[in-house]
Fold this protein.
Amino acid sequence: MSYNTLFIHKYKENKVNNHRNTTLKSIQSFGYMIIFALLSLMVSQLALAADKDAKVAWTKIDAGAMVVDVRTAEEFAAGHLENAINIPFEEIAVEFKKRGIAKDTSVVLYCRSGRRSGIAFDTLVSEGYTKSYNGGGFQTLSQFKKPQ
């Protein structure tokens, strides 16, 4: 084998190996991104699933917690918990600031299923409202017998 042939053979071999390494690195990076995305989704679902205990929610309400329905105005008009105020979840931080609600106020949030109240809960906690509670869904809360 001549030097030129050997050089070309080695060059092609290195090019194939480099391509394989690049492909493997790309696959590995993609795998890491998938794992990260799945873990992020699981953590966010856990956060949204936090709280939602009707008994705890009613205990807080009976102790004087502010009750906030984070559904739409139409949903609120169709039925809501007694003494609840309506602040749609996407407006929660702005409305709390506008209304001057103290950050140490005990708040129970609810919506239809607990998803929007979970988002509102996360928003309030990130704004420093540490006594917030995700009460979950309206149906569950309205059907739950208040603790005696």
Remarks:
- Residues 54-143 form a domain with the Oxidized Rhodanese; domain 1 fold (CATH 3.40.250.10).
- Helices lie at 3-49, 54-62, 73-78, 92-98, 115-126, 138-143.
- The radius of gyration is 27 Å.
